[in-house]
From TrEMBL:
Alphabetized UniProt keyword annotations: ATP-binding, DNA damage, DNA repair, DNA-binding, Nucleotide-binding
Keyword Nucleotide-binding included in the entry's annotation: yes
Family of the protein in this entry: Belongs to the DNA mismatch repair MutS family.
Organism: Persephonella atlantica
Listed name of the protein: DNA mismatch repair protein MutS
Binding site for ATP: 607-614
Transmembrane segments: none
Highest taxon above the source species: Bacteria
């Protein structure tokens, strides 16, 4: 259709759509939001609604689909969760009063990361900008105003995104972020122009927070890339929110150096926040929080265990006091129950979505905070005391809100019924007029009858005429001169007086005026609250900390967990520890102990399938993790030498990215562990090498164990079915063998779930197959094959290992064949020397190695 031929409405639509080519435009038409053209096809398909057509000329039609205005929220969230941007195009004037086409424009663009008011979607935004070998990274949650930024390496970036799980990540258009995208297929990556990450955007950020220099946020000059990412987030939020931006805290530096390393695969393997089918995640067992702020804080604590011993002890003391003083804990819990999600409420203030009911919720929450504050004097632990003392008193505000706001106002702002009597004289008068309108008319009628002596005089009302005084024809001679004629009927005449007219004006407009005036007063009140939103948010975050700490205490008290001793030592000692999650569901869970020190730090754990190996190694990692969050631990006694990170390689897990085999993922994770561990790390390996042939698997498992135990000396628990590995104990002093105890009774075996010293050289895999119900004949045949294989294999592998152990191990035997002095040799050595291990990613390391191997092969053949 040519531009000339389009209807005015369609011309308006095209103008708007041209401004938002990458968004689905929801065009408001009466009670519907309509989508046209390609948007209609997408909308109809993704929302599973009917695709219709709209007549736009004499005989022309365009594709259309629509959603009802009153149910728009659920449709929009479905579109957004599929990764669409949605531009909401509203009518900006009353259609009945508009001359010509109704004015319309986009009032907001909703994207996966900015739909902050939709609780189900849990929208949050991040931005990443490459900065040399590192990344400027920022995160903004518009529903709470939380805003953090940092500069980090690739591994930390992946871990950061894994912890915060933003729904949408802004990246510079030209940046190659394929690797990150591969790891997070459920997150939407939105490329934006370089201007989002520019000096100008940074200036805008500083202006927005009314400061001249970023140092006032606590950032150093080395962290400007973090601020560029933060600037992109602010710019994007402003552009998408258009009119109302929710409350945003000043950006705060995210200091990863105070937290232990917890990479993304470890977060997943340990099932801290989410668990695979049917399992409970750790947080479900630990969550006794009573507020939204507390829930978020607890999640943060669990994903950010501390490294700093002083900070751990501070938190521990707080939890300890709350465990011991159950009266205090109960008082705190009673108060917390009455506190709403203040952070979320405050964020609504500046976005204009705060309803009068929200305001009442905020008022009631602030009153509870005051109650909480009074408990300050009952507290001894310095950390907890400090947090309580930071709670602000909002008496002036709650008193004002009490005076102003009705106790149960309606949800909608423009319905009236929000403001109490005594706030505004004008409002009170208006309300009185409205309330007393009928009474006044009766009185007025009485007064007129008396004054005129006409007993049949009536004061009436109709929509066309308004108020009138009706006098029958015979009485017309008694009508006083100030009555003005309005209408003549067959047997009566209708009049109006100045007084009645004034009343009419008042009463007819009173209702509208009341609503408008109440709205105005409410908006002023909201502005006042907005003015102190920073302090309210600060207070509500402290409420969150109190809630998270009491939750830890509640769990510890209820389950009889103990306070571990936290030390600077290398050693870890856990007496009778149990798995915090599995022990909840398994009856008679068998506790197990773990002692690791300089003499025994690499534990190889063997044992049959189903004997409890995985459970034991995971429980140990979880206990260390819990201890370093400041929590109590599920054990009889515990002494934890602080670790700098927990690294796990467990099971096949879910495949990080499509296109990579399970074995490749396994090796990537192992490579990451080997690159990043130190002697202070805690490593958990479950069946490394399982995903390939037995010989390859054993060789890799052997070499990895040797490297970790000899070179890195990281405390490691390695569960394996490769019994050959138990020979490492003879070679490396810190390596010790353990096995899962079982009881054999003829053909039957019984799992005791007890970890004992020494090794077990049987897998009982066929036995487990039998337990699973596999046909007796197949089981018999499997035993036959097994005996045969065992005899053959044992002699071969043993021989190899004995030979190997007598030979000095070289980690780069590949170069034996490349002669020194050879150019290729020097080049290869130089490339290895130049390689920055701290910044190379596992996948790049694999590619690099592969390349070297190829070149060496060629060299061997006499090539080059
Ligand atoms: N300490 C324990 N006390 C009681 N039951 C336990 C204990 N540890 C494990 N179990 C039970 O045994 C089951 C199997 O445990 P787990 O997966 O740890 O065995 P595994 O040795 O790692 O097996 P596989 O080698 O086949 O992976 C658990 O799901 C649990 O029901």
């Amino acid at each position: 259709m040519s531009e000339k031929n389009v209807t005015p409405m369609l011309a308006q639509y095209h103008r708007i759509k041209n401004e938002y080519p990458d968004a689905l435009v929801l065009y408001r038409l009466g009670d519907f939001y309509e989508m046209f053209y390609d948007d209609a096809y997408i909308g109809a398909k993704d929302l599973n609604i009917a695709l219709t057509r709209k007549k736009v000329g004499k005989s022309q039609y365009i594709p259309m689909c629509g959603i009802p205005y009153h149910a728009a929220d659920s449709y929009i969230s479905r579109l957004v969760s599929k990764g669409h941007k949605v531009a909401i195009c509203e009518q900006l004037e009353d259609a009945s009063k508009a001359k010509g086409i109704v004015k319309r424009d986009v009032i907001r663009v909703i994207t996966p990361g900015t739909y902050f008011e939709n609780e189900k979607l849990r929208s949050a935004l991040a931005a990443v900008v490459p900065a040399g070998k590192r990344y400027g990274t920022a995160y903004l949650d518009l529903s709470t105003g939380e805003f953090i930024a940092s500069v980090m390496d690739y591994e930390s970036l992946v871990s950061f995104i894994g912890k915060f799980q933003p729904k949408e990540v802004l990246i510079p258009q030209e940046a190659d972020m394929e690797k990150v995208k591969e790891s997070f297929r459920h997150i939407f990556f939105t490329p934006v122009g370089q201007d989002f990450f520019s000096e100008e955007a940074l200036d805008e950020l500083l202006k927005f927070f009314k400061t001249y220099h970023y140092s006032s946020f606590g950032f150093s000059s080395e962290e400007t890339d973090a601020l560029l990412a933060a600037s992109a987030l602010l710019k994007y939020s402003k552009i998408t929110q258009k009119t109302f931006l929710p409350f945003i805290s000043t950006p705060k530096p995210y200091r990863e150096d105070i937290y232990m390393r917890l990479d993304y695969s470890t977060q997943k393997h340990l099932e801290i926040i989410n668990a695979s089918d049917g399992n409970l995640p750790l947080i479900k067992v630990l969550d006794r929080t009573l507020t939204g702020m507390g829930r978020r804080k607890l999640k943060f604590f669990l994903l950010h265990p501390l490294k700093n011993i002083k900070m751990i002890k501070q938190r521990q003391e707080a939890v300890d006091e709350l465990v011991k003083n159950s009266g205090l804990r109960e008082k705190i819990r009673e108060i917390l129950k009455e506190i709403f999600d203040m952070e979320r409420l405050v964020s609504k203030i500046s976005s204009g979505t705060m309803s009068p009911r929200d305001m009442v919720s905020l008022r009631e929450s602030l009153k509870q905070v005051k109650k909480l504050k009074t408990l300050h004097s009952d507290i001894n632990s310095p950390f907890l005391k400090e947090i309580f003392s930071k709670l602000e008193d909002f008496d002036w505000l709650t008193e004002k809100l009490d005076r102003y706001l009705e106790d149960s106002p309606p949800v909608h702002l423009k319905e009236g019924g929000l403001i109490k009597k005594g706030v505004s004289k004008e409002l009170d008068e208006l309300k009185e007029i409205k309330e007393k309108g009928n009474r006044w008319i009766k009185d007025y009628q009485e007064k007129q009858r008396e004054e005129t002596g006409i007993q049949s005089l009536k004061v009436g009302f109709n929509k066309v005429m308004g108020y009138y005084i009706e006098i029958t024809k015979p009485n017309l001679k008694f009508v006083p001169p100030h009555y003005r004629r309005r209408q003549t009927l067959s047997n009566a005449e209708r009049f109006i007086t100045d007084e009645l007219q004034r009343f009419e004006e008042k009463i007819l407009t009173a209702d509208e005026k009341i609503k408008a005036l109440e709205y105005e007063i409410f908006m002023k009140l909201r502005e006042e609250v907005a003015f102190v939103s920073n302090i309210i948010v600060e207070t509500s975050r402290n409420v969150g900390i109190i809630d998270a700490l009491q939750s830890m205490a509640e769990v510890a008290a209820e389950k009889g967990w103990i306070k571990p001793q936290i030390t600077e030592d290398y050693s870890i000692e856990i007496k009778e520890g149990f798995h915090p999650v599995i022990s909840e569901t398994v009856q008679d869970f068998v506790p197990n102990s773990l002692v690791m020190n300089e003499k025994s730090y690499f534990h190889i754990i063997t044992g049959p399938n189903m004997a409890g190996k995985s459970t034991f190694i995971r429980q140990s990692a979880l206990i260390v993790l819990l201890a370093q969050t400041g929590s109590f631990i599920p054990a009889r006694e515990g002494k934890i030498g602080v670790v700098d990170g927990i690294f796990t390689r467990i099971g096949s897990g879910d495949v990080l990215s499509k296109g990579l085999s399970t074995f490749m993922v396994e090796m990537l994770e192992v490579a990451n562990i080997l690159n990043n561990i130190t002697d202070r790390s805690f490593v958990v390996l479950d069946e490394v090498g399982r995903g390939t042939s037995t010989y390859d698997g054993i060789s890799i498992a052997w070499a990895v164990s040797e490297y970790i135990s000899k070179e890195k000396k990281a405390k490691t628990l390695f569960a394996t079915h490769y019994h050959e590995l138990t020979k490492l104990e003879e070679e490396i002093p810190g390596v010790k063998n353990f096995h899962m105890h079982i009881k054999e009774d003829g053909e039957e075996i019984k799992f005791l779930y007890r970890v004992s010293e020494g090794f077990s050289n049987k897998s009982y895999g066929v036995h487990v197959a039998k337990l699973a119900g596999i046909n007796e004949r197949i089981i018999k045949r499997a035993y036959e094959i097994l005996y045969h294989l065992e005899e053959e294999q044992e002699s071969r592998i043993d021989e190899t290992i004995i030979n190997l152990s007598q030979k000095k191990r070289e980690y780069l035997p590949l170069f034996d064949t490349v002669q020194e002095g050879n150019d290729e040799y020097s080049e290869i050595i130089k490339e290895i020397e130049d390689l920055d291990l701290a910044s190379i990613t596992p996948i790049d390391a694999m590619v690099f190695l592969n390349n070297l191997k190829k070149r060496i092969k060629i060299n061997k053949k006499g090539g080059i």
